[in-house]
Design brief:
The longest helix has about 40 residues. With about 250 residues, this protein is mostly helical. It has a three-stranded mixed beta sheet. The two termini are about 30 Å apart. It has eight helices and three strands; from the N terminus they run αααβββααααα. α6 runs antiparallel to α7. It has one domain. The radius of gyration is 22 Å and the shape is elongated. InterPro entries: Zn_peptidase_2.
Length: about 250
């Protein structure tokens, strides 16, 4: 991903005048965001395909996703987290506020390899919480800030660009960029949280002999594709911040 960015910056640097320089770079960054979005769509489609494939592979032990989750929690001496059912597809999540591992329709009652992998991953978050895993705690603290920032940032930037065009005052624009940067920071912090939860899940599946051989490899593949969706989201968030920075710089008068 670095090479396209270097080309874009070099193209922006040698163009004249300065406003055109940043405008060209911001346009290039816009297309980079689109490219990342396409890659994200491909990764998401692959994740759905892998999950569908391994949803048809029955878990050798016959345990449902809910039973796998309960077993992993017990094995980690976690007794204050409840396994519950939520509607939807791949809407599984751990909620530290209610201390619940919430499993979706396709996971809770399913005895497939995919269901077991997802259930173990969500319990990985519960283990992180119980062990005081710092990135998870930081991400939880950022949730209300990011929710506000993501819903307001675009309006702040649009108003800031109007003010910039008439008064050359950039303050509001940079406030908006800072709000978008909070979402990017959240995406970056999410990466170690998700990768670590998958690592904990796979380690437990293996050491507890809940999964072995081909089934363990299938679970690893499913969780790897899920993790890649977070990586693409982080790249997209970073590119968005750079795009708006270049857009603001391009709005300056020479």
């Amino acid at each position: 991903m670095l090479q396209p960015l270097i080309v874009l910056l070099q193209a922006g640097y040698y163009a004249e005048p300065a406003a055109s320089r940043y405008s060209a770079a911001s346009t290039g960054m816009f297309f980079l965001i689109i490219a990342i979005g396409i890659v994200g769509y491909i990764v998401q489609a692959r994740l759905q395909s892998v999950f569908k494939k391994y949803s048809k592979v029955q878990f050798p032990g016959g345990l449902t996703g809910a039973e796998v989750a309960e077993k992993m929690l017990r094995d980690n001496n976690i007794h204050n987290v409840k396994v519950t059912h939520v509607g939807g597809h791949l809407t599984d999540h751990f909620n530290p506020q209610t201390m619940t591992v919430n499993l979706s329709d396709s996971v809770y009652s399913s005895s497939s390899v995919a269901a077991a992998a997802v259930a173990a991953h969500e319990c990985g978050h519960a283990v992180q919480h119980a062990r005081g895993y710092a990135p998870l705690a930081l991400r939880s603290q950022l949730v209300p800030v990011v929710q506000f920032a993501s819903s307001s940032a675009m309006w702040v930037i649009l108003l800031g660009l109007v003010i910039l065009a008439t008064t050359q005052n950039e303050l509001l624009c940079w406030i908006g960029v800072g709000m978008i940067a909070m979402s990017a920071l959240f995406s970056l912090i999410t990466l170690p949280v998700e990768y670590n939860a998958s690592a904990r899940a796979l380690e437990w599946l293996q050491t507890s002999r809940t999964m072995e051989g081909a089934q363990l490899a299938q679970a690893r593949e499913a969780l790897s594709w899920a993790a890649r969706t977070y990586l693409v989201a982080a790249l997209s968030a970073i590119a968005s911040v750079l795009y708006y920075v270049l857009l603001i710089l391009g709005g300056r008068r020479d």
